[in-house]
């Protein structure tokens, strides 16, 4: 079994953060999602993740980005260049990283927005407080984009060939 480290880019991280969250757990600490290498560009490869058959029975289906289309793609770095186009692979993510990704993409911005709304409501009119609480997310996501390299180091997952 060949293992290589891959990195989730911030675009995929926040655009498709839950792509591996509804996959079948390999053990109690990891999620595994199957896919096919769809494109290789140098040491960067694109893996098209298959729709999970377990999505239909999942209680969190409405909240998840995986179940809304047949295939999602994730960009990964393969320094070994050992994978080929149309090769079946499995992408593995530790549960703790999945929870951390959900926190930074959904929970923390929600907290910032609600806190801004509550504080601004005591100072400004309601309509302005509402707009301010929405616009506060712009600098947040710009900061997330600027921290691209940090998130690439933090959100490491593994890829392996399927047999």
UniProtKB/TrEMBL annotation:
Membrane-traversing stretches: 101-121, 127-147
Record bears the keyword Transmembrane: yes
One Pfam family, short name: RseC_MucC
UniProt cross-references to InterPro entries, sorted A to Z: SigmaE_reg_RseC_MucC
Transport in keyword set: no
Keywords: Membrane, Transmembrane, Transmembrane helix
Name by which UniProt lists this protein: RseC/MucC family positive regulator of sigma(E)
